[in-house]
Amino acid sequence: MILALVAGRAAPAELRSRLAYDEPAQRAVLEAERAGVGELAILCTCHRTEVYFTSLGAESEAVHAVAAILPGLLPTDQADLQLLEGLGAIEHLFRVACGLDSRVLGEPQVLGQVRRAYVLAKEAGSTGPALANIFGRAIRLGRRVRAGTELGRIGQSIGSIAAGHLARRLGGLTGRAGVVVGAGEAAGDAAEALASLGAALSVVSRTRASAGRLADRLDASAYALPDLGAVLDKSEFAVVAVSGGIVVRPRHLPHRSPEEPFVVLDLSVPRAVAVGGRADVELASLEEIPGPGGPGVAAALGGAEAMLAAEIALLERWLETRESGPAIRRLRERAGSLVTDEVARATSGLELSEPARARIEALGMRIANKLLHGPTTALREADEPTRATIMRMFGLD
């Protein structure tokens, strides 16, 4: 059975911060010894950490084994984690891949993050047919939802939401000096959105080289972290999207007035900005910003939910058919055995050639197959009680 341990948007921010693993940390977990656990994959995004796995024995033992190898997870965190099983775990992964469980509805980056989670697990040798199946289905469904509904055309992302918030808060961004702290995917997304609204940007990263790679795309200035205070002092706002904990401290922040504070938007997990209680700094996180809405979003959501429901129905039917497979095989094996025994009994003592005997046995099997067509079809579509009743009717219970 597929299982999932989820620290999602509903989990405390402090817990999500402790479980925000970079790729080396994810690889270490994927390659760790894990008694009782079969396949394993880890999905880490800006606002979630989810572990998908299969059990080799008792499910409770597998859950404890996975919890034991997750760095930063404490026994007291149990109440804040969500355990999903079977179709519940699979449906959740599908929702994530479609952007239906994101802070920003239809978030385009998350599908790539789902794909990357599977690639990492495959490279670590921790996947198998079960996770290959559900991750493959999730990725294909995510693509179809984006191509077949308005979610793929809403154009919203974490960066565009952040830029829109700052534009509203500051009365427009044209010509306003701003700083983007970070050079990763989220920082790049935010920087491009800010630049498209006319902001005059500087990019600060741990090294000037990493900042330069993003700054060159935007015709912006690039700086290293030691220059952070001086760059912020010449700016009106900052967007911070880094990993690894606190980077922007009170000493880095410029002095303004409570009436016209310096505006900072922290997109990082864990949080990367500390203001020290200063009233002249306005700090917000992504959770505090309203996402997209309106009739177009509602229609896109309805279409995506319909496609998701159809995929789950197909998966349920596939699982039921797979569960019926052993019963169908037993039924046909029993029929084949009966035909062979009865042909042997009926032709005993007759001087028949092997081709003639084979033709008689083939005739018996054709008759048996025609008689079994109805029960076989019923087994493919049956739930467990109906399947058991059919098997009892044929003496196979």
Count the helices. How many? 13
For CATH, the homologous superfamily of the largest domain is named as Glutamyl-tRNA reductase, N-terminal domain
User: What is the average per-residue confidence, as pLDDT, rounded to a whole number?
Assistant: 86
Estimated share of beta-strand residues: 5-15%
Please provide a brief summary of the model.
51% of the residues lie in helices and 14% in strands. By secondary structure, it is of the alpha/beta class. 36% of the residues are buried.
Characterize the structure shown.
With 397 residues, the chain is of the alpha/beta class. Helix content is 51%, strand content 14%. The protein has three domains: 2-153, Glutamyl-tRNA reductase, N-terminal domain (Beta Polymerase, domain 2), CATH 3.30.460.30; 158-288, Rossmann fold, CATH 3.40.50.720; 320-393, no CATH class. The chain has helices at residues 13-18, 23-30, 59-68, 87-97, 109-124, 129-148, 158-170, 185-196, 208-218, 228-233, 295-346, 354-381, 384-393; strands at 2-7, 37-45, 48-55, 82-85, 177-181, 200-205, 221-224, 237-240, 262-266, 281-285. The chain has a six-stranded parallel sheet. A four-stranded antiparallel sheet has the order 2-3-1-4. Strand 2 (37-45) and strand 3 (48-55) form a beta hairpin. It is elongated. The model has no long low-confidence stretch (mean pLDDT 86).
